[in-house]
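--- STAGE predict ---
source: upstream dedup step, 1 unique chain passed
mode: sequence only
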Amino acid sequence: MTTAPAAGRGERAPQLAGQTVVVIGGSAGIGLETARKARAEGADVVLTGRDPGRLQAAAQDVGAASTAAFDATDADGLERFFAASAAPIDHVMVTAGGPYYAPLAEMDLARARRHVEEHVGLVLGVARLSIGRVRAGGSLLFVGGTGGRRTGIGMSVIRTMTAALPALVANLALEVAPIRVNLVAPGFVDTPLSATLLGDGLDERREQLRATLPIGRVVGPEDVAALAVHLMANTALTGATYDVDGGQQLL
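--- STAGE serialize ---
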């Protein structure tokens, strides 16, 4: 009797096959790369972003199932999005928003207050709206950073947020369980946002990191995306912060 070879022997099954991944802030950078990685792992992807044109281009790039253009920091818009979403969702990743740097003497206090309120409000809003819409064992994944762990002039707001988010995520992991909640904390990542923040200093920063990081190269959005998809797929992980900075904080 001849035994037929097992189908797919030696091949790894897609980690997110048949699952739905929502990426809030998914039209560029880390969000877009995570959407691309999730699609490669078999997921259906829903992208959101503020810019309809850029969002549509991103959706075509990754083959997104659908898109929604709105400002994620607008509580009403966020609620409308979740209310219109077909349940259940398996994973939600939030990359929307950027840092606010300003020395105290030059700080726009209204902007600083708004930045903190919007970012904390976004995390709380997504967590609350996920109840009943994200399946048990699914996940919420937020993006913070490691840069604000050091003191420095102009770092007051970002340092506050860097300290607050791990504590908030850990507590939410209990409040919305069995939905899992985790935080990814990148260092410098070579994205369009980094290019905007650094301007003409971007190439110098890249060269500095290549010369000093233990990994010998600059962290890219694909590195963060690989971690994000792992956190979605590994159902033992919740309530924790995961650094992905190429060893930058060791220097």
